């Protein structure tokens, strides 16, 4: 199909005639696109050009106890348009409002979308903190490059996020466990249905005040190992935070729920390697069969799992604080049968998911081929010790109780 | 993450509080969802409820020679809203207009989108014809069920498409090779970012007048075999027409183009099976090494290739019209090395892509591991005989020159 471009102008989107330059060499092209950035003639994101149009109809704050993840949003949104011919336009903070999109817009047909999940926290002194935003900016750029969306200067966008969070700071609850969930989103906006690199795009950010994932303390979940669908593949896009990875996850999730399991567990290949749980990374604490040493294990970044920021934080804290206690920490492939064997032999200490929403999510058991694999918790326990310590360490940094380079 | 629902009302979208029922049994759940349809209390699509709001600003027709695929659209659009609590709303034909979408709308974040490509033709008598619309309806329902979007009565939607095509019939050029490209699209519209089955959706159709894919006759293309990325895999969603399958195809396509190849060729697995070309199915005509018989081969529907309507038509016509001439026709896996060997031994007769846009697309050669595999055309030829006959047969049916059950 031949690509094409057309003009459209409305209150939130511009699209200009444009052609995207192609990168020239062979392997892993999206890595190169990312590092090469835009051509010099095009404008980068410029925080000094930010304009703010305050809302004239401020929303009422919702009581902390009634907050639901991703249901209500703050007064404003941040948006930055891009065209292939001009680069990034001046950033704008405007009242939260609908996008006006041509029905031919390429994101609606071909899933030109990638996003991030981040949180802003208020510390004891009421100061607003972000947690490792550079990791999110790095990943969003990698995701964008993989689907021919424009890359950008992560530091400049982080500055704008900070401005936005200050503007809507009143929506961040003053209570530990509460935060403002931030959703940076980058979509292709070209209003033509030829399959081609989008000639225009919109980078925007919306924010939703959220409560603790476990308001009454941890509640360990049960998983169903999915044996009829595969989330990702080497050479595929499962390691990028693309919209394309999410819609196909919902039916297996529903299926697990219909049989009483809170999440599904993704296995990979004939070896049935344990990869991810629902939309979180997975950690397993196992006593080594030969040496008796405690090991904290998680799947390696081989292209089939998401490059989780919380995963990275758990690994770093484990290496810093568990290894001196005698633990081993490893990123390696673990077969589902290895997990089942450790459970049967009483060597499975605990298992937990890790992600931005819950930080950690303890797992009680896994349904696998009609059997239930117990994940090490006693009946009265809702979390293992490692998951609990990780949550406390990470929250301590997020809420500024511990000074750390990540906040 | 917990799912949630909220109310919003605007000129083109409704979203109601709703919970979707879960199907109960185990394997291939999306197949069942499709066959079980919606719960009886919910409204199905009802063509008798169609309302038509004609445009007050009709567009000028574009001269045939200036038409570009998917760039300009007709005066109207067809849309039908759905909510989990009420089912399908009354269908509407309205002026072509922007959609007003909350920035939290789930299609923008999680790629809840699937679509079809169809064409409407004018025959010699000026009557409007559709080509095998039941196949598109079947596939759109299968795609929808796989990503937890609502399924629908394909016959009812086809009736509405016919009404729409009558309304905008003046946009269908009166010239063979020209047609009206129809784009049915189904998107999730729930304005919350919890990952869950969308509680609301929009089925809509837009249409773009298009010219022949090869305005001056066939032009054989060159392909680059992609060895660094994988389009689809067993247990994945590569056999569904989901938006999610398209955005990740653009960079490999750009890479091929940057080295002078018009399309990329997707291989799969260590065996490097030949699967699809760009966004088309692939056919290979090879003389069998042992028997000397001519064989028309294409990849089987094993979940890694799209269930193409043109693919199905080519196979059916080959079985009906080539087999009596002594050809064998087979859906089987073909290794790239097998193709290269047939070429080297002078047994590769021709290779072509098949899809709705081009019908067939002859292939001159394939770049594979630094070598060029010649696909059987002589230097002065732009198509092989099988591709040419297939195009003539299919166009003959599409434009009503041959009476056939498919039109």
Automatic annotation (TrEMBL), chains A, B:
The chemistry this enzyme catalyses reads: L-leucine + 2-oxoglutarate = 4-methyl-2-oxopentanoate + L-glutamate; L-valine + 2-oxoglutarate = 3-methyl-2-oxobutanoate + L-glutamate; L-isoleucine + 2-oxoglutarate = (S)-3-methyl-2-oxopentanoate + L-glutamate
Cofactor(s) named in the record: pyridoxal 5'-phosphate
**Protein's GO biological process:** L-leucine biosynthetic process; L-valine biosynthetic process
* EC number in record: 2.6.1.42
NCBIfam families documented for this protein = ilvE_II, PRK13357.1
For this chain, the family text in UniProt reads: Belongs to the class-IV pyridoxal-phosphate-dependent aminotransferase family.
State the name under which the record lists this protein: Branched-chain-amino-acid aminotransferase
């Amino acid at each position: 199909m031949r690509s094409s471009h057309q003009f459209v102008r409305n209150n939130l989107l511009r699209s200009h005639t444009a052609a995207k330059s192609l990168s020239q060499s062979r392997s892993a092209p999206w890595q190169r696109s990312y590092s090469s950035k835009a051509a010099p003639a095009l404008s980068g994101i410029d925080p000094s050009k930010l304009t703010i149009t305050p809302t004239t109809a401020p929303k009422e704050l919702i009581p902390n106890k009634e907050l639901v993840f991703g249901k209500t949003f703050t007064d404003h949104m941040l948006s930055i348009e891009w065209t292939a011919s001009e680069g990034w336009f001046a950033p704008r903070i405007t009242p939260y409002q609908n996008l006006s999109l041509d029905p031919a817009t390429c994101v609606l047909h071909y899933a030109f979308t990638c996003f991030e999940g981040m949180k802003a926290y208020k510390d004891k002194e009421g100061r607003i903190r972000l947690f490792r935003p550079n990791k999110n900016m790095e990943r969003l750029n990698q995701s964008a490059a993989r689907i021919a969306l424009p890359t950008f200067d992560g530091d400049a966008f982080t500055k704008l996020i900070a401005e936005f969070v200050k503007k809507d700071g009143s929506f961040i609850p003053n209570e530990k466990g509460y935060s403002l969930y931030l959703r940076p989103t980058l979509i292709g906006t070209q209003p033509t249905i030829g399959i081609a690199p989008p000639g225009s795009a919109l980078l925007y950010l919306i924010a939703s005040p959220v409560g603790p994932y476990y308001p009454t303390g941890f509640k360990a979940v049960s998983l169903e190992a999915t044996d009829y669908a595969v989330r990702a593949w080497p050479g595929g896009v499962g390691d990028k935070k693309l919209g394309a990875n999410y819609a196909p996850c919902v039916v297996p999730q529903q299926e697990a729920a219909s049989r009483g399991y809170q999440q599904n567990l993704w296995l990979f290949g004939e070896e049935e390697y344990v990869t991810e749980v629902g939309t979180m990374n997975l950690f397993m604490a196992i006593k080594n069969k030969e040496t008796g040493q405690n090991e904290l294990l998680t799947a390696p970044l081989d292209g089939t799992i998401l490059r989780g920021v919380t995963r990275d934080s758990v690994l770093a804290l484990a290496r810093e604080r568990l290894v001196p206690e005698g633990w081993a920490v490893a990123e390696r492939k673990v077969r589902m049968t290895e997990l089942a064997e450790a459970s049967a032999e009483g060597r499975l200490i605990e298992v937990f998911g890790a992600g931005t929403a819950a930080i950690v999510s303890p797992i009680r058991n896994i349904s696998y081929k009609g059997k239930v694999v117990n994940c090490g918790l006693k009946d009265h326990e809702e979390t293992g010790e490692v998951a609990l310590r990780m949550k406390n360490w990470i929250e301590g940094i997020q809420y500024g109780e511990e000074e750390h380079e990540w906040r």
